[in-house]
Amino acid sequence: MPAWSPLLVQKIEIHALGFVLRKLQLNRHRDAEVASHGHDFAQLILYLNGEGVQTVNGRRRRARAGDLFVIPAATPHGFLVAGRSRPLCLVLDYEMEGSSRVRVAHRTLSPATLNELHALLVRVPRKGRLTLGDYPAILAVVARLLAQSPAGPEPAPTLFEKLADHVRSPAPLGKIARDLGYHPDHLSRKLKRESGLGLRALRDRFRLEAAQAALRGEPTVAAASTRAGFDDPNYFARWFRRQTGRQPSVWRKKP
Length: 255
Fold this sequence. Notes:
alpha+beta, four-stranded antiparallel beta sheet
């Protein structure tokens, strides 16, 4: 079963000035995690609401309403929910002909631009056979998205990205902060302003990723506990329930 529910799907092929549009889709995420995967076409992914962590080529970025990601063909990317609301994403599948090259990029659209795109999407038919009169609305959405697509080099890593590898280690959070030149409380506040997660919450998020991967791959909860770095399976079960609201054994049985 797909990890998302398509609310709008228009499979069309439009060629214009070296640009080939394949599909415009509106997806509501069904699962809390989308495993890393790639496509034989490029994608623009715009978060319309909800929040999570978008991974592109192993780099993680916080994703909220207005965040636009450019993902070239064959580039591994995935997603993890990091809040209470599962995101609604506008996805554009496309190709660039000739010498044009798509680069990994990210930017955040202004509220005014995001509102404009919402208004344009209302005019796009959700599904079914298109009429000639439908194309202006679709092209307006595509043109607005492409106008916002970053063309410059990829920006410098965010604080969230810089900390990702550090907080996965078992080192105390205070030591990690000091090694990076911060007081722990200051670093946690700075990180929370940027990503919505403090240091401890970020570590728990990555530990939860590891725990869920272990539960999918190991035959028992005890084995998953060890693989995820927990010495005590009972503590692991209590910790996992605090994070997800479910016991590990129950989570393993989800469809």
